[in-house]
Amino acid sequence: MKLYYSPGACSLSPHIALREAGMKFDLVKTALQTHTLADGTDYYQITAKGQVPLLELDDGARLSEGPVIMQYIADHAPASGLAPPAGTMERYRVMEWLNFITSEIHKSFSPMFNPNMPQDGKDVLAARLKDKFAYVDARLEGQDYLMGKQFSVADAYLFTVSNWAATVGVDITGFKNLEAFRARMKARPAVQEAMKAEGLVK
Ligand SMILES: N[C@@H](CCC(=O)N[C@@H](CS)C(=O)NCC(=O)O)C(=O)O
Asked: Is the shortest distance between the CB of 54 and ligand 1 below 6 Å?
């Protein structure tokens, strides 16, 4: 398999999931400013969406949309426990988190990286994001991970989007449960390996 990624982008979450699952994969770095690969290939020729993450399977099929890619990974490594079995209530809980993170958090961050976004728009989004993180912080009370004791793909996604807060000026300091969660995530070998491979840490 191949994972098309950009360092520190949302593709970090399926990257972590692949490592947590112990799967074999290659990383293909994508420059999102120019939508090109290192060898000059036009990324739009690979995916018309022009976005990461993109998982290319061994048969050449390409799967997009991070929350779906992560569930594909989890379902193909069931022993990893990255997501509960499909059809169970617990699985819907993981999907509920993935959907919340993608629609309420990830996509509130995206315009903040746009240099054409006016500051007052950024301020509105920053306040909205702070509210969403306050909700997550409250839900993490007394829990190691979003699903309780068990790590899931939703945690990889939450970790990834919360990494962006400092860069765009969303103040999440003081959210003690979220801070503890982030420290727990950083201690996971798969997270360290993924961050190292993306050049985010030494
Ligand atoms: N709906 C997509 C969104 C992916 C997305 O927003 N990717 C960003 C990086 S975090 C991207 O590729 N941006 C470049 C672009 O939109 O051209 C998903 O959930 O995977």
From this structure: no
* Token couple for 129: 């994001």
Nearest CA to ligand 1 atom 15: 51
pTM: 0.98
Tens of pLDDT along 135-145? 999 999 999 99
The Å distance, Cα 160 to ligand 1 centre, comes to 13
Give the position of tokens 């979450």: 13
**pLDDT digit string, tens, across residues 112-129:** 999 999 999 999 999 999
Instruction: Tell me which residue has its CA closest to atom 18 in ligand 1.
Output: 65
